[in-house]
Structure formats: C-alpha cells, structure tokens
Amino acid sequence: xxxxxxxxxxxxxxxxxxxxxxEDLVEIYASSGYNGRQLGEAAKLYAKMIKEDATxxxxxxxxxxxxxxxxxxxxxIERGFVDWIVTTGANVYHEDHFAWGLPIKQxxxxxxxxxxxxxxxxxxxxxxxxxxxxxxxxxxVVQKMFKDNFTDKPFTTSEFCNFMGxxxxxxxxxxxxxxxxxxxxxxxxxxxxxxxxSSLALNLAVHRLHxxxxxxxxxxxxxxxxxxxxxxxxxxxxxxxxxxxxxxxQQTGPLLDQILRSGDGGQDYIIQITDARPDTGGLSGAxxxxxxxxxxxxxxxxxxVIVYADVTVAFPILALYVLSNQxxxxxxxxxxxxxxxxxxxSNDYLKTEQKFYEHKPRKKK
Length: 365
Known about the structure:
Elements: H1 22-30, H2 34-51, E1 55-60, H3 70-78, E2 84-87, H4 89-99, E3 104-106, H5 113-118, E4 121-124, E5 127-130, H6 131-146, H7 157-171, H8 179-185, E6 190-192, H9 199-202, H10 205-208, H11 218-230, E7 235-240, H12 243-250, H13 252-259, E8 269-274, E9 304-308, H14 311-325, H15 338-351
Parallel strand pairs: 1-2, 1-7, 2-6, 7-8, 8-9
Antiparallel strand pairs: 3-5, 4-5
Helix pairs in contact: 1-2, 2-14, 3-8, 7-8, 11-13, 11-15
C-alpha cells in the first residue's frame, strides 16, 4: 500500500463520555496515532482473525500468569478465540498456583531483596510468592505428577501440558482457575518452547537422579506445530512479547517453506505486543515484515500489526474488545487432530520428496 499521499482518515478531536464501551475506546485508539493507533488496529485485526475463522495461536513469553493473566487466556480458550498456545514453562508452572490454591500476592518492586530472602519471600517484580507454601508445594505437585509418567517413551510438551491439565482438573482445589485445565477441556495444544528453562523441568531432576529418563521428542513437536499451519486454510498469531515462543510459532513457515519446500508462505496474520526494539537485531524486536524473507508471513503489506507497549497494559484491551463484539466460535479441538495433521504433512512430503532436493526459485506471492 502506498502511503506517500494525503489520503488518510481525518483525526478526530477526541471526546470521552462516561457511558463509552470498550468498542468505543478501541475506535478512539484506532482513530488516533502512535501506539494507541497500533493497539486499535491490532484489536480490529484480532476480530478479523476470528471472523475469518483463522487458526489462532497465542504465544506468551515471560511470566504473565503470576499477575493473573491466565484467567484472560482461559476465557479466550472457552470462547474459541485461541486454538493453540506456545508459552514459556514459567507460565504453566505459575498458573498451577491458582488451581491448587497456593498463596500469591501483590508485593512491591522497591524493596530490599535480602530482607525478602530472609523472610522466605520470592519476588517477581511486584508479585510475591512464599518459598515453602507456594514454590515448594508446587514442586511437590509437579514431582508427583511425573514420578511414574512420561518415563517410558518419547513425549512432546503438548502431551506434557495436556497431562498436567488432566491431573489438575481431577485433583486441584480450584481447577476452574487454570488456563491449562481449560486447554485440556477444549483440546487446545499447549507447547512449552523451552521446557528445560523452567521449574517444570527442574522438578524432573529428582526422578532423573533415580535413573528415570525423560525423552522430549522436540523434532516431532516442531513438525506437529508446522502441520497445524499446513492443515489450516488461514492462520494467525497473537504474540505477547517475543522470545522463544514468538519464534517457535513463526518458524512453522520456514520449516514448510525453506526446509520442506512446500511453498506454504507462512502466517496470514500476526499481532505482536512488545517493548523490544528492532535495531538491536534480536528476535523479540524483529519486525513482523522482516519475517517475509524467511517465509514466516504471507504478505508483509497487510494484516501485520506491532504494538510497542507493555503487555500487561495493552493485552486486556485487545482481549476485551473481541470478547465484547465477537460471537463464540466452535472449538477447533486441535489436540485430538495432531496425529492426523502430522501424518498428512508426512505423507505429502514423502510422496514428492525428490522435488524438494531440486534447487528451484521460491514461489512469488
């Protein structure tokens, strides 16, 4: 789209009224400028993904569940607005505190951490956890879950999280306070992008020292993720932050386009909320448009929005907007379809494998 002209929308002299709705607020954002405008456009793009029945991935970096965002993820799952998830292990681990009724409280960021340490308080910015009553109690839950499970054959993190959801649903004090349980109920695959970089994996260490082996089939996992894209008519991502979850979801395009040479072309839509900058060269701050050169996105000129903002500020507005004006969608229940998706991708590749070794120009979109 050529923006080198004076044909844009008029910017209104904004008026706020006491009875305005979230839709009104998003319209105000979208009609303004800077990152307010980007947030408004992102909210509308999320609604467009839902209307066009895209397969929607939610990626969650950092630790969003300690501030209660698991409840937002759960609501989006229940409404059919999230079909699969890629997250850090921290978000799965800390979400379980709510399900099992373990203490987690608001604290403060301007503190003496030596005093907190002496008081057995663990800090995540301004959120407090109890060392024994929260973390050690959670560790016992995780260790018990996996003492005699997943030691006999390779597994994926989606299977790992699905099992956690099942056990929490059956045994936790408040299973209704867990997006992992909701993902289990609605067959939403939850992948942990770096399992070993979390307390989930740390708790497997006690069993490994008793000679129990845990074999993560990470290659099957990346093929499964690519097969979701491969088997979707339209596909999009809502990215909270960047990091490994962002890349895990986006690399489905290069696996299909670059490695398997299917000419898929990547995602149809991506929204990212981030505070990372592109000029540092890191993945978290890389522009979505840059992903076109890797085959991560279909078209860098449309349906791509980056909001440079704190996720905890911007995401609730984005989520509430679609919850307010989009009808509930029938769950896609991808977890139960993963094996079929995998087999289709595998069969299609093997049928035409020889052509993938021929050096041909990439398809132009």
